[in-house]
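User: Teach me something about this protein's shape.
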Amino acid sequence: MPKRDGNVSQTSDTTIALRQGAVVSHGRPPLPAEALYASANFTLSLLPIRLAHRIQSLRNLPFIVVSNPHIAQIYNNYVHSLSTLLPYQERRISNLEDEIQFTEVMADLVQTHSNTIPILARGFLECRKYINPRDVTRFLDEHLRARIGTRLIAEQHIALHLSSKPHNGGATSPQEHDQSGYVGVIDTALRPADIVRQCETFVGEICELRYGVRPAVVINGQADTRMTHVPTHLEYIITELLKNAFRATVESGKERDPIEVTIAAAPDDDQIAPLATNALDGNNRVPDTASIPGVTIRIRDRGGGISPEVLPSIWAYSFTTFADELSRDIGSDSNAGNGNADALNAISGAGGNSSSLAGLGYGLPLGRAYAEYFGGGIQVQSLWGWGTDVYLKLRGLGK
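Assistant: First, the predicted structure itself:
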């Protein structure tokens, strides 16, 4: 463990708040060398502190929990990442050679942490007897939100590096980027309708493979609406919500009834209000900024709705509701699930896991974390015996 992590982790949370404008403050690519160095140093100023906070948070868990092989793996990954980045804090990145080396290191670290969530999920499932469920919920809420910001910072610099490449003699064409709305991983001209269609294709193929049928998706409302957002965040959220809607629709025998997706842009004089006004390292909700355009997406299905007994628990992480059979299934790497065992299955009334997280009950809670990160949210309205309306509210990252 690096000796300096104690000092780093003691840095005030207010110094590492991630604000909306910060991730796009270096300009539109291709960036000149000096702007690329500024992006690298900005990234380096935040990541070690954030990693140290994650390490400290893991250390605060009971020893028997941290000793679990899955959670210990995540702890060691964070320690390794912090050890790798600390030497770079001794100097500023001011030349192409250092910037290239730093970006390569960042890419390796992003890959190292790519499976953090499913590994943590399995670890906490195995340790559910040794820790209070409320403590795990508190830890996961903080950890997952902090991870979203940390990964966004790292991936933003990597994307700026790849789209600029001044070390290649300016091989990237400015005209090419003028036609693109991307600033790093952020799309300044994102059409939610396009994301819905992409996710529909993906989820529809899975549904048809498993059930032999797939319901249609109808998009209405303001389908041409554009906003500034992170496409990968929206893709994850829409995928999870469509999986629930597809599964509920098919298993209730209503596959001939289309799933309706309505897109509505907030008027300029009635912006979506943020869910929080403080940007803390723990909750990582971005502070209020004026005139941020918002979009609301409603996903409506005829899948029978969610029973009143199950509805209160749909946002709970899997460890609070998993049955013993599902625990044994996961322990044996089985694909079989337990019908209403977790948030993802509860909303659709179907068992099974079609992804690394689907059978672990993190689908809806993590989707909500992505939505809330930039001041949005998810609300579920269930009409038991008929269907479900899910409202996804998004705030753009700026005009």
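Now, about its shape. DSSP finds 13 helices and eight strands in the chain. Strands lie at 182-183, 186-190, 217-221, 227-229, 259-265, 294-301, 377-383, 387-395. If you'd like, I can walk through any region in more detail.
User: That's plenty for now, thanks!
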